């Protein structure tokens, strides 16, 4: 890494490394239909770049549609816990500065991470690496939906118990990405959602991947999801499985 890259990495605010193993176990996967749709937008299918890849869920999904996927994340711990795939190359790099060649990428994806980026720097890098016909797509999800009684309790955890532990970047997701700049020729996209069958313990594991949950634990020495798990017991037995759904918000565009 050169000096500029090392300096940028030093200023990276790492909100996820300590729970990177939880990401692998409990975060939902994105639907195959999403990757198929994005692949239908690109003229070529040689190289996709998944930036802010986390544990590589989007990167491995893209591998079914592209010859090669480069997946980057500034968190070395996330990369160490990433899902292996023969067509995916993982690199510890920030989205704002990469080792990718200019005009080499058919598709850029940002799965649940754009709100953490330096927008101006990232968009400059995106324009540098995208092919002339390239596509950039970013999506995110906020609160899950299960059933009214459970949803109400989860919303209380999110909005009240953890309210002061969410960062301004998290609020961009709550706003449905509507306030994030996106200086590309925008494309109207279909609606997509993630779905995952989970038992109550797994769902609590998912809530522990929230950065605000980890901040609460760090400052208070207790885990707020313990009380929530007991509260949900009346609606969700220990061995019972329920469908959990997350609606995606998306921005997609051409250079």
Quick recap of the structure?
It is built from eleven helices and eight strands. The protein has 255 residues and is an alpha/beta fold. It has one domain: Vaccinia Virus protein VP39 (Rossmann fold), CATH 3.40.50.
Q: Strand fraction band?
A: 15-25%
Cα radius of gyration in angstroms:
18 Å
Distance between the termini: 28 Å
Helicity level: 25-40%
CATH topology: Rossmann fold
Provide the domain count. Answer: 1
**Structural class by helix and strand composition:** alpha/beta
Largest sheet: 8 strands, mixed
Give structural notes:
- This protein is α/β, with parallel strands linked by helices.
- It has a single domain, classed as Vaccinia Virus protein VP39 (Rossmann fold).
- The protein has helices spanning 3-10, 20-26, 32-41, 57-62, 76-80, 119-129, 148-161, 168-174, 200-207, 211-220, 224-232, and strands at 47-51, 68-72, 88-91, 105-111, 130-141, 185-186, 193-199, 241-254.
- Helix 2 packs antiparallel against helix 9.
- The longest helix has 14 residues, at 148-161.
- The two termini are 28 Å apart.
- Mean pLDDT is 92; it is low at 1-12.
